[in-house]
Known about the structure:
This protein is of the alpha/beta class and 327 residues long. 24% of the residues lie in helices and 28% in strands.
Amino acid sequence: RSRGGGGGGKGEGFDAKKAGDARVGLVGFPSVGKSTLMSKLTGTESLAAAYEFTTLTCIPGTFRYKGCKIQLLDLPGIIEGAKDGKGRGRQVIGVARTCGLILIVLDASQPMTHKLLIEHELEGFGIRLNKERPDIRFKKRDKGGITYSTIGCKLTHLDQKTITAICREYRCSNAEICFKCDATIDEFIDVVEGNRVYVPCIYVLNMIDKITIEELDLLSQVPHYVPISGYHEWNFDLLREKIWDYLDYVRIYTKPRGQIPDYSAPVVIPRIGASVEKFCLRIHKSLLAQFKNALVWGTSAKHNPQRVGKDHKLADEDVVQIIKRIR
Length: 327
C-alpha cells in the first residue's frame, strides 16, 4: 500500500557530462536550426533534418574561444506546456538550469511568438533570464514574527500586510527581512521560495536569409539579439564574441617559478568574485592548504609583480605565481 502525501519522484535528466570551462545550452522550438548551429560551431555532428523533433536527446559539443573551452548542449526542441512535462520538456529545462548561459534559438520569420512562449516555459520552471538577483536578505528564525527593514530605498510595491501574507502563504511565521532595493511582489516571492536560477540569455535569430533587410534592421534593435544564418555561417564571429561577453569570465595565466607564463592554457573563472582563492580552488583544492602568498602581474596589481594574499581580486589576463608554505 502506497503512503499518501508522498513527494514527487526524482525527475529523469539527460546524461551530459560537464566538460570545459563554461556550459551553454541551446533552447528552442523544433526545427529552428539548433542542430545546424551546433555542428557548424563545434564540429559535432548533431542529426539535422527538415522535419520536427530530429534531436531526441542532449548532444554535447565543445569549441574554443580566447583559450576558453566552452561546452555547447544541443537540447531537444521544447513545445508549449514543457514546464508541465510535455515533450520531454522538464528534462530539457532541467538541463538548462545548470547552464551558465542560455541561447534561445528563434526562427527569423516568427521570432516574437516563439520568444514569448519559451520565456513563459522557462519562467514557470524558476529560470529568470537576464535579470539580477533581488538584493533582499531573508532569514528565517524561531520566534519574533515577521519584521522587515529597508536600507537606502523606499518600498512602493510592498507593505507590512502584503509581506506577512506572502510569508504565511509559504508557511513561514517568523522571519527577518532586509530590503536593499524596491522589490516587486514577484521578486519577493522568488526570494522566499529560494530556488530560482538567474541566467544570462542571448536570443539567436536564425535563418536571416529568409527575411528582408528592413525586417532585419528592425529586429537587430531589440536588446540581447544576435541575427545569424546557421546554414550560410553568417555573423558567427559576433555570436562567439557575445557568448564570451555574456558568460563574463576572466582568464588567469599560471607562472611556474623561474619560467615564462603559460599563455596556452589559461585558468578560467567567473569575473564576479574572481580572487586568488578562487583561482587556487579551480586548479586544485589542496593548493589552498599549502598557500603562503602569490605574485601577480597585470592590471589588478599596483606594481609588477605585487605580493598578495588569497583575497586579492584578479582581473582578465593577469599572471599569477603561487608561493607555497614550506613545512
